[in-house]
Known about the structure:
Elements: H1 5-22, H2 30-37, H3 41-53, E1 57-60, E2 66-69, H4 78-86, H5 112-130, H6 133-153, H7 170-177
Antiparallel strand pairs: 1-2
Amino acid sequence: MKLTKRGEYALRTLIRLGIAERMKEGVISVSNLAQQEMLPFKFLEAILFELRTAGYVESTRGKYGGTKLAKPMKAIKMGEVVRLIDGKLAPIGCASETEYEKCSCPDEDHCGLRMLMIDVRNAIANILDRYTLEHVVEVTLRKQERDLAAKTKAKKKTSKGRHADPADGFLAALLDSNPS
Length: 180
């Protein structure tokens, strides 16, 4: 599975709207949303139309209009949004539950690649379907607060360049706050 730009922007938009709701900011204009998330305005409008049609967001017209969440954050599963915007979660069609496509393999029932990709799909689905927008917003805000506190303690921080540190992941941040 590869998340498209459309899928990425839709999720970022929902997360930003969730943060706005949590911070009691009210509605956010599309232009402000596009600016805050550095998204192309017209592309964002199309994404918001799709999210509005599916019932995830609602819009208010007028001078003080904008967009806000239409559902409670705990009712928005991340997997549902990804499927809405990008379709199947499976990396190959013959491993998809929702958009199955026959493959060219001579023995699909015993194909090792298909079995592996079904496990990949299941792992992706288990994570995306387990977490709601509320979880992601909570972890995002908690990490922002933690990093802000760390930044004020250590004013000078050396940078080794950006990379995808496993410690920066959602699950790591979630587990960091819930020691079991």
